[in-house]
Amino acid sequence: MALFLSVRCLIFSWVCAITLSFLAGVGLSSLTTATVPYIAHPWLVIGLFGSPALLGSLLGQYLGYRSLKGYLFRVQQQKRSAQKASKESRADVQQTANETDLMLAVWDAERWLFKAGIVQWLGILIVGVWLEVGASYIAFLWIVSPALACKF
To answer: How far apart are CA 50 and CA 85, in angstroms?
Structure first.
């Protein structure tokens, strides 16, 4: 379930980025009479479409991260309640346990998002090799370097 939520987070990030860029284009066409004002100055595309895409991507990533972290926190709470069902707990021990569960949920969420990013680059690599794109090695470098650095 955690891998599904982390992949959903990445997909939501892509959707938000594309949606905000699209809305920027629609807004630009409704605000100006020129059909494509960035033809004369192509560097305007970065500000006009890149900024909303970056904002949408960060927003989607944040919202997906929050939902993944909440799910993992609930799982940690259920594990702890199953372990301590027979034990009596004090309030200060319970607060420390909640803080520990939250930190474990944060670390697990980051780990799952890292794995989802690797799966994303693997998908890009597979599609690139299948379509015989010459620059597919870039996705390969994004997969191999982190995979060598950490253990899955």
So the answer is: 52
